[in-house]
Amino acid sequence: MYTFPFLGDSAVSILPPPKYRRQKRPLGDLAFVEIAGVRQYLGGYNTPESEIKYKRAIAEWTQRGSSAIPATSKDVTTVQELAARFWEHAERYYRKPNGESTSELENFRQALKPLNSLYGTICVSEFGPQALKTIRQTMFDRMNRKTINKHISRLKSVFQWGVEQEIVEPSVWHGLQAVKGLRRGRTEASEPEPVKPAPEANINAVKPFVSEQVWALIQLQLFTGARAGELVSMRSTELDTSGKIWIYKPTDHKTAHHGIERSIYIGPRAQDVIMPFLTGRAIGSFLFSAVEAEQARHAKAPTHRRPDQQKSQCKSDRAVGQHYTTASYRRGISRACIKAGVKSWHPHQLRHNAATLLRKEFGLDVARIVLGHRSPAITDLYAELDREKAFDAMLKSG
Question: Is the pLDDT reported for residue 309 higher than 70?
């Protein structure tokens, strides 16, 4: 059985390809293939024509995601089957160049959970706008308006994919388009809190409680304005160190799948942060190694412990990857905030710190280029507006 992470305890069988079968008839045997209980007749048994039709049926079934759910009629496909087949597609599609899954896969997992739990057993032809709005209503108590809108959009895309695979009638997907996104001030859903720069005192407070790698990542975000995901997998082979300003071109970044190249500019202070991690390192290896951080943590730990401390230590031991992930980087900061006794903050806020400084000192256009934004409006969302200049202007003219 193959268990999909959004299906809970239910599972979907992995089936072998449906067989080429024979039905005896007085006037000549017929060939057929049965897919999901739907019998498709192929012509005379053991004829070239029927074999070609059989191969075509199996090819279409395989293309639609055969290892999870065989192709079925639009009239009998359930919502759970559609979700399972889409998940199989998503696991292949939402991948980074290095093979790791993207965060969008987890987003789809969260979106598919209520779809399956509420409507998994009904046919896709019965799923309409009211059902989608019911799912949306269940999200109000745990998600903000923007997150809900994104999840509903993802569910629409699942049915759009089903139309493309010819397992969902186009009219079903078109009907779902009538469900518009929730608008600010027109809904009971909560609004997301604006992300603000992390207080400098709270940033400095975590230094004694994080690894050298995490502290380096924190400094690099402040100095470069880069996203956490762009820095955690940095390799020396992606760095151009030939000029006074180094240029880092990450293979994996937010808009890589759009064919957009990302350049991150590394100034003198950021270079000083990176330099210790370049020394004595194999070409092509990750600079910020989670394995090295774990080894250093064990080396610093006391060698003599009571049995209960040793047991606790064993529980804390965990498998780590070759480099930090955005999740492990965020957890490292969160734990350090607790130990330091300061209000928790997260890596994304550091990008806002950098954006605010860049916009204030060098203007919107420079900040946009450094941050990798294509639109000035996006940069404004990241930067705390410099109100002091506005106040000065109004003191003189207002």
Answer: no
- Average pLDDT on 208-230 reads 92
**What pLDDT digit, counting tens, does each position of 78-104 carry?**
888 898 889 989 998 988 777 778 889
Among 56-65, 96-105, 162-171, which stretch is predicted with the lowest mean pLDDT? 56-65
Average of per-residue pLDDT values in the chain: 80
Helical H segments across 102-211, by residue range: 103-119, 129-138, 145-164, 170-176, 200-205
Q: Helices (DSSP H) in 30-123: which residue ranges?
A: 48-63, 79-93, 103-119
CA dist list (Å): 355 to 196, 310, 351, 366, 390: 10, 45, 6, 10, 18
> Is the confidence at residue 256, as pLDDT, over 60?
no
Q: Which of 154, 102, 91 is nearest to 326 (CA)?
A: 102
Does residue 234 contact residue 278 with C-beta atoms inside 8 Å? no
Cα(321)–Cα(305) distance, rounded to whole angstroms? 27
Contacts of 267 (CB under 8 A, 6+ apart): 223, 224, 245
Alpha-carbon distance 266 to 284, whole Å? 19
Q: Report CA torsion sign: 133, 137, 142, 144.
A: positive
Token pair recorded at residue 2: 């193959």
CB neighbours (10 Å) of residue 184? 9
Strand-pairing partners, residue 235, are: 286
Vertex 35, ends 30 and 36: CA angle to 5°? 135
b/e 293-303 (16+ beta carbons within 10 angstroms → b): beeeeeeeeee
Report yes or no: 145 and 153 within 8 Å, Cβ to Cβ.
no
pLDDT at 365: 64
Q: Distance (Å, rounded) from C-alpha 3 to C-alpha 196?
A: 40
> Percent of the chain beyond pLDDT 90?
36
Q: Is the pLDDT of residue 137 over 80?
A: yes
Comparing CA positions, the residue from 4, 218, 235, 221 lying closest to residue 98 is 235
pLDDT of residue 398: 45
Q: Going from the N-terminus, what domains does the chain have, and what CATH number goes with each?
A: 18-65 (no CATH), 69-193 (1.10.150.130), 200-382 (1.10.443.10)
